[in-house]
Amino acid sequence: MSAHCVGQQRSIHRLENSLFTKPCSLSSTECCAVPFSVPKKCQKAREHFGTVRTQLESLKTKFPADQYYRFHEHWRFVLQRLVFLAAFVVYLESETLVTREAVAEILGIEADRERGFHLDIEDYLSGVLTLASELARLAVNSVTAGDYSRPLRISTFINELDSGFRLLNLKNDSLRKRYDGLKYDVKKIEEVVYDLSIRGLNKEAAVGAGGEK
Is the alpha carbon torsion for 36, 147, 127, 122 positive or negative? Predict the structure, then answer.
């Protein structure tokens, strides 16, 4: 095994380990159990992305710049997971969808493939689809925690996301299967919202949201 291959594996291994550190352990369950701690956890996660950027800088030096897709499979999963984490942090902070360019900036890599080590569009989309699944869980956990307005906002967000994906011509088999999962996430959230509706809790949530404004 060449020195370059060994260096790649070590860099990727460090990246994989970083995914399981505490700053990267944000989950929908935790957000609902201790909601007041979410801003601090988001801040910690953003600080941790500094470490991730350093690790990605190291990885860039381990292979020729023009052979990105030759080795792409080695770090594809890690990048998709990092996209999800960045997207989840941004959603928790602002309830908006992070752009591919913004994720690339957070990770310290390029958005344009012509400029070297970059965030592949399909890796970005896969990470966003993972976000959708996590938000479906967040909707359920929010109801359990007594937050009846969040599922309504998540429903609006996910429906807009689904509409955007419908416009895409997904040729990648793996990505298309992941998109099929989004349909179940939409249905799951619709069921949560419907349950709130028949229990009259959606009206309570609307009043609460109006009061917040």
Answer: negative
Category of 125 on φ-ψ map: left (φ > 0), alpha (ψ -120 to 50) or beta: alpha
Q: For the chain, how long is the longest CA-to-CA vector? A: 65
Distances (CA, A) of 116 to 69, 83, 119: 11, 18, 10
**pLDDT 10s digits, 9-54:** 676 677 666 665 555 556 776 676 667 678 888 888 898 899 899 9
Task: Give me the helices (H) in 3-64, please.
Answer: 3-18, 28-33, 38-60
Q: Is the pTM of this model over 0.90?
A: no
Residue 110 DSSP SS3: strand
Which 3 state secondary structure label does DSSP give 213? coil
Instruction: Give the model confidence (pLDDT) of 77-90 as tens digits.
Output: 999 999 999 999 99
What digits encode the pLDDT tens for the residues 119-141? 999 999 999 999 999 999 999 99
Please work out, in degrees rounded to the nearest 5, the angle formed at the alpha carbon of residue 149 by the alpha carbons of 143 and 153.
Answer: 110
Residue 78 in contact with residue 16, Cβ under 8 Å? yes
Determine the 3-state secondary structure of 118 from DSSP: strand
How many residues does this entry show for the chain?
Answer: 213
**C-alpha to C-alpha distance for 56 and 51, rounded to whole angstroms:** 9
Amino acid, single-letter form, for residue 20: F
